[in-house]
Amino acid sequence: MPEPTLPEPCPDETLDSIGTAGVRVLQRRMGYRFTLDAVLLAHFAATEGTGASSGRMLELGAGSGVVSFLLVKQFGLGPMDALELQPAVHARLTRAVALNACETQVTPLLGDLRRIREHVSGGEYAHVVSNPPFRLADAGVRSPDDERAVSKSEVACDAPAVIAAARYALMPGGGVSLVYPAARAAEVLGLLSQAKLHPTVLRFVHARVGAPATRFLVHALRDRDRGLAVRPPLVVHGEAPGGYSAEVAALMEPPRAESTRSAQLTTS
Question: Phi-psi bin for 57: left (phi > 0), alpha (psi -120 to 50), beta?
Answer without folding.
Answer: beta
